[in-house]
Amino acid sequence: MRPLWQIPRxxxxxxxxxxxxxxxxxxxHLPPWVAxxxxxxxxxxxxxxxxxxxxxxxLLKWSLAGACAGGLFLHYGRMNGLEPMVALLLxxxxxxxxxxxxxxxxxxxxxxSYLIIILQSLFSTTIVSSLxxxxxxxxxxxxxxxxxxxxxxxxxxxxxxxxxxxLLQAIPLMLVLFIVMPRIGSLWxxxxxxSATTGVSDSMSPGDMTKLGRSGKIAFRVEFDGPIPAQSQxxxxxxxxxxxxxxxxxxxxxxxxxxxxxxxxxxxxxEAWDSVIKRRxxxxxxxxxxxxxxxxxxxxxxxxxxxxxxxxxxxDFRLVNKNPVNAKLQYSVKSWLNNQLEPKSLVGWRHKLExxxxxxxxxxxxxxxxxxxxxxxxxxxxxNRLLALYHQEFIYTLRPPAxxxxxxxxxxxxxxxxxxxxxxSSFVFFMRAAGVPAxxxxxxxxxxxxxxxxxxxVHQYDAHAWAEVWIEGSGWxxxxxxxxxxxxxxxxxxxxxxxxxxxxxSASPFxxxxxxxxxxxxxxxxxxxxxxxxxxxxxxxxxxxQNDLLLSLLGAINPQRIALFLLLAGGIALLPIxxxxxxxxxKNTRDELxxxxxxxxxxxxxxxxPRQSGEGPRDFAQRISRCxxxxxxxxxxxxxxxxSARYGEEQEAEIKAFKTALRGFKxxxxxxxxxx
Length: 676
Prior knowledge:
The chain is built from 26 helices and 20 strands. The protein is an alpha+beta fold and 676 residues long.
């Protein structure tokens, strides 16, 4: 018999499998060496079980822990954020395998496995990832079942079967709680790592957009009420950068989010702002389903208006959410593509801001811009002259060379190779140096049209930067220098333009977009995305559906009716479990002969002749004969009938005979007293 502290073999099998699966769920956002550490620790534990290797010493354990902590600091730079903290947890989780000595250690790992599996839902809530999370819970539950198993020789499949039954039994109650429990916001905000690989950032420097161009993650999806506009019209405005320090563009301070005059909400009325916007024609109506960005800015086409009370319109005509978007968010928008922004004049502070340049940077561009301005006083002609330069001599590439201090000078008059942020930054700097107000706008351009579901998929690789130039009488004019260098990039999707390059989706090696040239795989990818989109719309829209559903079921929503509904629905959900427990109890009850024999014993016990523990029927009968000779004949007869029914061939007939004889067996204390 194994010691109580020893880990059952079957539980160890499922536990090691759970560790591998838990780490695999986080591969996409983990440093590769963290996953490697988990695999090495798992193999080490297997070799320990086979008695091939020794337990690691304390020095080795501390060294591994220090190496993991140092590696995380080197990889992330700082440990605040969701990804670094999950990576730290997974590192400790993997190293805990090297200290797996007792059942309590295994139980700690099992409970950590549940936590780590559920943490995957913070990174992705697609239907595929949700199914993977449910599947991953199965081996962990099997490990927990095997940990409390009765015998060492229980087959692993038995623990798996029990774990599956437990999970299936929990699903009805989970659905009841999902239907009834109110949707509430998260109690805390969990910031993810701020990086250009996770979405458009609140600043831009050379190389940021290039990183996004290698990522295949979904940024958002858009469903239009009518036809989808042409690809060249799909400029998804997200941020406006007016501040420049020589290398990095930003929003020029935090005043944009704190100044009530800068943000206006739909319930406050926007009539005063309409005086600086000229909208023409009919608006486009559409709904955006945005992935989590952990930032407040939203994405929309030009001159957007949203009816949502939690969405504000900024003074530079962007949409801003009331809180950071920490989970999928759906919002409705109307946009007028035919418009003029501030055509009459710019306020003084704005005019000064959109001309500001840092001193000591890019002297050649400054000088050239002044010369061109003198030679070409018309602003539109100056813009066309600079765009012609881009068109003739520049190359659009995902592998631009590195730039030094004078980024614009080195790019315009040296390397002449870059991605969209290189062109937007250099164009705006040149225009400002020529005395023309200009700014950088970042967001996304274009998108992939779903062939059957009539919605648009916008990926991270569609991230784009362009310029806006202010011309008196015309207002802010969008100028995209990338279109001058590579017009195909604007007319077709980014994936179609770059699909042949080696760098395409290098940051997403497992993305199915890499295999879009294979028809059946591309069809499968789009089919899965349509399922994900339907899942997202159902989950995001359930708050309104839930209210209508509960009203139809209860007539009115109040605590009393909710509690009653919970009791009834919960009881119905738990009914299959009660039935299974009842059937299981029936299987374990005694057979009819044992039940009759216990009645026989009970009658004798009431006379003061209880059956002793471990006493057989024949020994019991002999003791009764000694204590109460008057019962000898009846007791001997009943005992013979019992033995014949238990061990004879005609068991059914003997059971009936025993039952009949028992009916007539009604001993009393008088018999016992007369015997004494």
